[in-house]
Design brief:
By secondary structure, the chain is an all-alpha fold. The protein has a single domain (19-307), classed as Mitochondrial carrier domain (Mitochondrial carrier fold, Alpha/alpha barrel). 72% of the residues lie in helices and 0% in strands. The chain contains twelve helices and no strands. Helix 3 (18-49) packs across helix 4 (70-82) and helix 6 (127-156) crosses helix 9 (193-221). The protein starts with a helix and ends with a helix.
Length: 309
């Protein structure tokens, strides 16, 4: 006759360690999604950084090559000028980022849901708690993952630096971490963290609130049932709202992370997120804050279709 200890030992891994199994499966799914959609992320970053008005202050040494024209031309230009595989330049720190972000976000969200907020008396978890919890969890996860995001953005721009005749900054991912740490210290690894966590909060807020609102509206006011069609329409709307809210902060984040720095690791173009925002709007117009919007939205929709975050 088997003992409770034997039954526990023979039970499936998912039942013995549900959180660990959930995190592992989530990490695997995120890695696959990252590999499949990374060219959109690279294209987005190149579009966000092109045409920086602040570069004019650095003189001839910072002249840009001809700007990209739209998402498709950007992707084709990268393939023609740098090679097909360069569409995945920076994918390794991006995978690191997903592991850190997903883990930090999941642990924080479940702690908030079970310990801080708790469910109501009818065992229902209200939408407002889900939204606040999602925003706070996204902020924590993004803050923890900021060093990997920083390395990802800088590595995504290495191909463009080579085309402009500038020296490459890094030999690889680990050299990038070591160099940033040596030049700017621990603080240098968190360059751009303010707009980064702002983006995370705005994206999670727009995503969660819009998805649930649209889904409930469709189920209650149309003949549609809770199925894949309803999910697709809700994801379409939530991804659009999340991109509208989060793209300006994403543009500021990318520019601050990619800006040249002095020997002490201080930025040469922007003093702060606010300074970057003002220079972008004054020098390039308000719509410069939405550079890279289309690939950002398409990528967000692809991730949502793979599974709700």
């Amino acid at each position: 006759m088997s003992t409770p200890e034997d039954e526990e030992r023979l039970s499936p891994l998912a039942q013995r360690w549900p959180r660990a199994s959930k995190f592992l499966l989530s990490g695997c799914a995120a890695t696959v999604a990252e590999l499949a959609t990374f060219p959109l992320d690279l294209t987005k970053t190149r579009l966000q950084i092109q045409g920086e008005a602040a570069l004019a202050r650095l003189g001839d040494g910072a002249r840009e090559s001809a700007p990209y024209r739209g998402m498709v031309c950007t992707a084709l230009g990268i393939v023609q000028e740098e090679g097909f595989l360069k569409l995945w330049q920076g994918v390794t720190p991006a995978i690191y980022r997903h592991i850190v972000y997903s883990g930090g976000r999941m642990v924080t969200y479940e702690h908030l849901r079970e310990v801080v907020f708790g469910k109501s008396e009818d065992k229902h978890y209200p939408l407002w708690k889900s939204v606040i919890g999602g925003m706070m969890a996204g902020v924590v996860g993004q803050f923890l993952a900021n060093p990997t995001d920083l390395v990802k953005v800088q590595m995504q721009m290495e191909g463009k630096r080579k085309l402009e005749g500038k020296p490459l900054r890094f030999r690889g991912v680990h050299h990038a971490f070591a160099k940033i740490l040596a030049e700017g210290g621990i603080r240098g690894l968190w360059a751009g963290w303010v707009p980064n966590i702002q983006r995370a909060a705005l994206v999670n807020m727009g995503d969660l609130t819009t998805y649930d609102t649209v889904k409930h509206y469709l189920v209650l006011n149309t003949p549609l049932e809770d199925n894949i069609v309803t999910h697709g329409l809700s994801s379409f709307c939530s991804g659009l709202v999340a991109s509208i809210l989060g793209t300006p902060a994403d543009v500021i984040k990318s520019r601050i992370m990619n800006q040249p720095r002095d020997k002490q690791g201080r930025g040469l173009l922007y003093k702060s997120s606010t300074d970057c925002l003002i220079q972008a709007v004054q020098g390039e117009g308000f719509m410069s804050l939405y550079k890279g919007f289309l690939p950002s939205w398409l990528r967000m929709r692809s991730v949502q279709c793979d599974g709700r975050r």
